[in-house]
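Here is the promised in-class demo. Please do not try to memorize the tokens; focus on the logic of going from shape to residues.
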């Protein structure tokens, strides 16, 4: 026996199947594209998955566009990596100084 329906109105979900995974497309989901795409029908912007051939170096699994580059994210990543390298360099210098003292 199925559970009773919720006491509030539930909006329909749009599901996009990608291999073993299902992606939910909703109005709350984030997009990397421009705001003009809000006026476009969601069914017309559906990304079709493609099967990567084993002969082409793939594993025969469906692949689709997973990420979209964002300049802000790239800047944050570059800053994080630079800071991490600086920390490692300082740790190495301090380690060498401690070894010289001993």
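The designed amino acids, position by position:
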């Amino acid at each position: 026996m199925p559970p009773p329906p919720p006491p509030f109105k539930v909006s329909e979900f749009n599901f996009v199947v990608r291999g073993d995974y299902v992606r939910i497309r909703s109005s709350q989901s984030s997009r990397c594209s421009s705001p003009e795409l809000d006026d476009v029908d969601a069914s017309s912007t559906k990304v079709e998955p493609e099967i990567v051939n084993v002969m082409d170096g793939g594993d025969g699994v469906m692949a689709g566009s997973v990420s979209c580059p964002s300049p802000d994210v790239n800047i944050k990543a570059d800053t994080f990596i630079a800071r991490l390298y600086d920390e490692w360099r300082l740790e190495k210098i301090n380690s060498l100084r401690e070894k010289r003292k001993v």
